[in-house]
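Service request form, structural biology core

Requester: graduate student, group of Dr. S.
Request type: structure prediction, single chain
Budget code: on file
Notes: please return the result as structure tokens.

Sequence provided:
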Amino acid sequence: MSYTAFSGFDHIASGSLGEVYAASRDVAGALIFDEQTGRVVDIDPRYPPSDETARPGRPKLGVVAREITLLPRHWDWLATQPGGASVALRKLVEEARSNPRMAMRAARDSAFRFITAIVGNAPGYEEAIRALYAGQREEFAAHIEAWPGDVRAKLESLTQACF
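Core staff response, request fulfilled:
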């Protein structure tokens, strides 16, 4: 996974979580972003990340149990699937994740989260978002042209898969 840190409109670092945290921990107001999701990463300073250690709290097997609610007919269908409900649901999710349209939507959502956190009140913000979701690369580029250089450069990188 790749991460990026910004302080205001200034790019601080990109790389692994440990590298980005080390470069930004002493910078006031620094935000670390997960480049895959566009979400701000919340770090507990008592357990700083490093490249050698895993972050605390992650399940060792990567399996997370959660509750879902389905209609009886959905449960009936899942019960007839080879491997049971869990296997069938995992297969459905993986199939949906490999769909190119879903991947493009995820990339756009990630860019949207980043843009909103960094320049959510900048001139051309709403127009840029509309162009992003409409798949209009040239329009998007025109609306972000006046934005700070570091932000624009990161957006150009993050939005490659969006158009």
